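Quick review question:
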């Protein structure tokens, strides 16, 4: 590779599931989305469509609230996106999610994870090495339900992803979309 050539950029989108309900007697894994989550997920999906933030692959936690979030987001996207159930990202630490990401095939340039906190916030903060400082300040303050972090990595394949190598491009929260942006 010539000295001035850079490896291709990979884009990682981290989406925390929408606000969930807490029905009595329902196991954590089976908790559904609450009304607020059912409204926020399509708004985030519409934002992704407008901004052309369409993943090639979505790895979705097997928890019901994450699955429902993805279904509502996906309905707003301009075309069908391959989605895979990922039990390995259900309520795990950031380093475990990095291991999942590293196994994604090189043909995937834009990857999305739909999961849970505190792991999603920890993962984003672990991976970010620079980027939009205002967005980073918001992310450090809180990674709310249906929050979306968009990061770029200058790597040839996902197996090369490492802490501190990502550039935060955007961090969007549902309350930011109330004005239609």
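Suggested answer, residue by residue:
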């Amino acid at each position: 590779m010539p000295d001035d050539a850079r490896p291709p950029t990979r884009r990682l989108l981290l989406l925390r599931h929408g606000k969930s309900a807490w029905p009595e007697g329902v196991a954590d894994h089976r908790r559904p989305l609450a009304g607020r989550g059912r409204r926020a997920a399509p708004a985030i999906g519409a934002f992704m469509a407008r901004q052309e933030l369409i993943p090639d692959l979505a790895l979705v936690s097997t928890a019901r609230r994450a699955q429902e979030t993805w279904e509502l987001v996906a309905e707003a996207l301009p075309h069908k996106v391959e989605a895979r159930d990922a039990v390995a990202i259900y309520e795990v630490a950031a380093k475990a999610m990095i291991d999942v990401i590293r196994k994604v095939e090189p043909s995937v340039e834009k990857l999305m994870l739909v999961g849970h906190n505190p792991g999603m916030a920890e993962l984003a903060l672990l991976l970010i090495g620079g980027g939009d400082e205002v967005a980073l300040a918001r992310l450090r303050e809180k990674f709310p339900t249906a929050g979306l972090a968009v990061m770029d990595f200058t790597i040839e394949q996902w197996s090369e992803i490492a802490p501190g190598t990502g550039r935060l491009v955007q961090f969007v929260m549902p309350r930011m979309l109330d004005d239609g942006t």
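Why it works: The domain at 9-177 is CATH 3.40.50.1240 (Rossmann fold). The chain has one domain: 9-177.
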